[in-house]
């Protein structure tokens, strides 16, 4: 907790939010003062803080604290033996503190920039009043940090698998809350809940979930994390970093309503109407009868504001890159909290040649591992909307963006070039945390060993694709090919590379291996991220080339031949035409588990780091966790100039209308002349006709025939550019529109939903 708080304070100091005054810290229930002394590991307490107050009701603990600070020689720390509910800060003038009659004139009391409670909230019987008093104690831009034990209240839920069939899923407590900052690892099973509550009850320590619930209700969540201390038997504890519910924007008379609307305008590419011009513009809009398009984040914020609830945690972040999403929806949980790709299988060199990205472009692209998103941002587009349904793919992009913002090139290279950093957890807490969303921080805190561990390959042996990479490395070891692989990755000429390849190919491309493992549907999806619909497209192309009837598509031997031929047509031309050691970083990474200084993506170059580590480099980035259709339906029509959908259209079922609906939605969101870049496992994708029927002119700009190399990846059979040449009429979805007056209240004293003008 102290590391997270220190990181937040240093970030705010760097942003000069407190230009003339040092911060004031109040440690509620500080006991012996250990917490304050421990903060010295992260911040110079004596010089960083104007004053520190330790408040505790125990005279004996306060005496120990006084002796501690006398020994340390810290003159700016005061120990106050008082009930925390009654404690008030004296007023502050300039850099000095002066006494005032704080009880009779509470409006004259000072405000703290930092309030902390470390394992004290669970020991306070009347915790409601203590939390309430903390809201009055904390300044508008202040930070509160709480670390404590917890045990979630018991409620039944449907059992999901045999592995947790004996658990009662108390996570259902949180299903209706969108402001908790994430529920990852928050669930405590029935045995643990019953045991720890009984254990702590003996010492009058309350582990009931209401304490944490009330804390989250009274404050906005910046970071929330749940963990277990397994050295002490798995005690559940949480860390909460929060702020005032009303958003502070360092502006005169800040308003959460105005900030929400401003962010929503960026999410949907809509013009932002300032309060001064809002009513005139709204009346004009109503005359034109044009409904405003609103983001899901906006709709959630409206509901929370009307009910006097905190906003979703994404609104309280230091950066607004990541847009709110409901992590508990089935469409997100289906991925099992794991990304498929640790790196992106798209060649950005080809993308730039085809798209010629400029400063006026507004781009929508699938996130994947975020590599190409970072590549596009180097060309200064006006906006990039990164979209992925899998939350963890966006967590990976967030980590890269935060690392640009907070880390030097050496640390950045270790994490993403080598895939390992021995001090990753320390960097995550002390440097990266102010730049990550609560959800992303929770994920990487739980997976920090992936990068910090000295065993294994590191970051690039994670995700669903790790199955294929581990299998390949295992085969190389078993058949004694590790030396040959090293030679292949060090070859300086194509001729040398071609001579080495046959010895590796005999094992890697053996038909028994492919028919027994690679050609199975399970391996295609889990290891390569190839869904059944895309696999069927590969088989269909093979049948057409072979002149076979479609009825044998499901035949195991035929499907095995189709997949084997597809892999052959992918790998053989790559080795023949691209140099792995110096240029083809995609396959270098697969073979070595890391990048080299000579062979790596452009986002890992020192030049890219200099450009993307500058302030405001990511102001144009918006990260959406949703389906493409859901995102583009909430973007103002006619604003996008480029959409990069990768091979996502291959995932659609030809028997359904999904492809046609997406083509219509893309037509609606793109400007006239806007382009769609897509890749496909098929030489002639079935859905191209859907684009042509919905206002696009489709042109195949790359075709991989047997023996040819389409790009450095060479994994897709074709590449297409679909250009918008005709407007089609698409009505606004009702679910995506909101009245311009949604946030206008007729009576500001009442926060009820009835007071909203509809």
UniProtKB/TrEMBL annotation:
Pfam families, sorted: DUF3419, Methyltransf_23
Q: Which CDD domains match?
A: AdoMet_MTases
Q: Which InterPro entries match?
A: DUF3419, SAM-dependent_MTases_sf
What is the protein name stated in its UniProt record? Betaine lipid synthase
Q: Which organism is it from?
A: Ajellomyces dermatitidis (strain ATCC 18188 / CBS 674.68)
């Amino acid at each position: 907790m102290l590391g997270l708080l220190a990181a937040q304070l240093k970030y705010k100091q760097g942003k000069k939010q407190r230009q003339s005054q040092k911060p004031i810290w109040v440690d509620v229930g500080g006991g012996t003062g250990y917490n304050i002394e421990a903060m010295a590991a992260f911040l110079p307490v004596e010089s960083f803080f104007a004053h520190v107050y330790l408040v505790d009701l125990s005279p004996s603990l306060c005496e120990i604290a006084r002796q501690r600070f006398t020994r340390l020689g810290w003159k700016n720390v005061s120990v106050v033996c008082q009930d925390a509910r009654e404690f008030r800060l004296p007023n502050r003038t300039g850099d000095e503190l002066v006494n005032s009659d704080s009880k009779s004139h509470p409006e004259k009391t000072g405000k703290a920039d930092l309030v902390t409670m470390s394992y004290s909230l669970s020991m306070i019987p009347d915790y409601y009043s203590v939390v309430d008093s903390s809201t009055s104690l904390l300044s508008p831009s202040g930070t509160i940090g709480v670390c404590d034990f917890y045990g979630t209240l018991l409620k039944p839920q449907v059992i999901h698998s045999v592995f947790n069939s004996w658990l009662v899923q108390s996570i259902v407590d949180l299903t209706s809350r969108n402001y908790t900052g994430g529920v990852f690892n928050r669930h405590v099973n029935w045995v643990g809940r019953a045991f720890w509550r009984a254990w702590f009850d003996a010492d009058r320590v309350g582990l009931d979930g209401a304490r944490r619930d009330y804390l989250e209700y009274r404050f906005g969540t910046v970071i929330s994390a749940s963990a277990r201390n397994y050295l002490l038997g798995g005690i559940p504890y949480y860390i909460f970093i929060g702020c005032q519910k009303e958003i502070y924007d360092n502006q005169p008379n800040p308003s959460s309503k105005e900030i929400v609307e401003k962010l929503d305008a960026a999410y949907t590419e809509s013009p932002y109407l300032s309060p001064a011009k809002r009513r005139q513009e709204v009346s004009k809009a109503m005359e034109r009868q044009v409904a405003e398009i609103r983001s899901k984040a906006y709709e959630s914020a409206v509901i929370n504001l009307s009910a006097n609830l905190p906003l979703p945690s994404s609104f309280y972040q230091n950066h607004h890159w990541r847009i709110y999403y409901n992590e508990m929806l089935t469409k997100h949980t289906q991925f099992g909290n794991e990304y498929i790709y640790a790196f992106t299988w798209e060649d950005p060199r080809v993308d730039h040649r085809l798209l010629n990205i400029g400063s006026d472009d507004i781009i929508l692209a699938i996130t994947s591992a975020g590599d190409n998103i970072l590549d596009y941002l180097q060309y200064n587009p006006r906006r990039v909307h990164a979209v992925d349904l899998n939350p963890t793919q966006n967590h990976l992009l967030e980590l890269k963006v935060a690392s640009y913002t907070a880390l030097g090139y050496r640390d950045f290279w270790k994490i993403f070039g080598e895939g390992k950093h021995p001090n990753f957890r320390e960097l995550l807490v002390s440097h990266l945390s102010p730049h990550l969303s609560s959800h992303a921080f929770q994920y990487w805190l739980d997976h920090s060993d992936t990068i910090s561990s000295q065993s294994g390959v590191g970051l690039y042996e994670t995700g669903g694709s790790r199955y294929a990479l581990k299998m390949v490395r295992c085969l190389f070891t078993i058949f004694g090919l590790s030396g040959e692989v090293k030679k292949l990755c060090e070859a300086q000429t194509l001729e040398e590379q071609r001579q080495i390849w046959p010895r590796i190919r005999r094992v890697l491309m053996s038909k028994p291996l492919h028919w027994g493992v690679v050609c199975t549907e399970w391996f295609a999806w889990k290891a390569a991220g190839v869904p059944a619909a895309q696999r069927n497209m590969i088989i269909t192309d093979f049948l057409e080339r072979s002149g076979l009837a479609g009825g044998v598509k499901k035949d195991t031997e035929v499907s095995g031949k189709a997949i084997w031929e597809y892999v052959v047509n992918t790998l053989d031309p790559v080795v023949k035409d691209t140099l792995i050691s110096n240029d083809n970083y995609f396959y270098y990474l697969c073979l070595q588990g890391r990048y080299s200084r000579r062979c790596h993506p452009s986002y890992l170059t020192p030049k890219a780091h200099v450009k993307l580590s500058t302030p405001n480099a990511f102001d144009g980035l918006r990260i959406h966790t949703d389906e493409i259709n859901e995102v583009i339906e909430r973007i103002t029509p006619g604003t996008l100039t480029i959409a990069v959908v990768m091979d996502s259209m291959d995932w659609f079922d030809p028997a359904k209308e999904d492809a046609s609906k997406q083509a219509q939605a893309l037509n609606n969101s793109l400007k006239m002349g806007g382009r769609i870049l897509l890749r496909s496992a098929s030489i002639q994708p079935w859905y191209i006709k859907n684009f042509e029927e919905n206002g696009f002119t489709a042109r195949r700009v790359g075709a991989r025939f047997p023996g040819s190399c389409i790009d450095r990846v060479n994994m897709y059979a074709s590449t297409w550019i679909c250009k918008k040449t005709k407007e089609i009429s698409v009505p606004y979805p009702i679910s995506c529109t909101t009245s311009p007056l949604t946030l206008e209240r007729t009576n500001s004293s009442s926060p009820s939903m009835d007071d909203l003008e509809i």
